[in-house]
Design brief:
There is one protein chain. The protein has 112 residues and is mostly helical. It contains 4 helices and 4 strands; from the N terminus they run ββαααββα. A two-stranded antiparallel sheet has the order 1-2. A two-stranded antiparallel ribbon has the order 3-4. Helix 1 packs across helix 2 and helix 2 crosses helix 3. Keywords: Coiled coil.
């Protein structure tokens, strides 16, 4: 028995902007420099990755595309989006620490 919780970023109307998968996708874009490379790395289709990035951009912007041919294009992520990811990961870490505390209490209860 354990408690669980999911964390995501949403707009003021409750529409989701980015969750765990989106954070991994954007981190992969930062690492690879492209949506295609990131999609391969996180094992999603290019179309899915492109649509996810478009959704993020429609809410917060900050993911810029450089046009070009082979080896000339790419994708850049702004410092603002990087900071959003940092805040998200910090929140997830804190939530997990709290859950760990209460899961320990649940385990103690179930073993007594």
């Amino acid at each position: 028995m354990r408690l669980n919780f999911k964390v995501w970023i949403e707009d003021e109307n409750g529409k989701p902007i980015m969750g765990k998968g989106g954070v991994e996708l954007v981190k992969s874009i930062i690492e690879t420099g492209s949506i295609a490379g990131a999609a391969d790395k996180v094992n999603v289709s290019y179309k899915f990755a492109w649509e996810y990035v478009r959704r993020i951009n429609s809410f917060v912007g900050g993911i810029e595309f450089r046009k070009g041919g082979k080896n000339a294009g790419g994708t850049e992520v702004s410092e603002r989006v990087k900071k959003m990811i940092e805040i998200y990961e910090e929140a997830v870490k804190e939530v997990n620490q709290i859950l760990e505390k209460y899961n320990k209490k649940l385990n103690e209860l179930s073993s007594s």
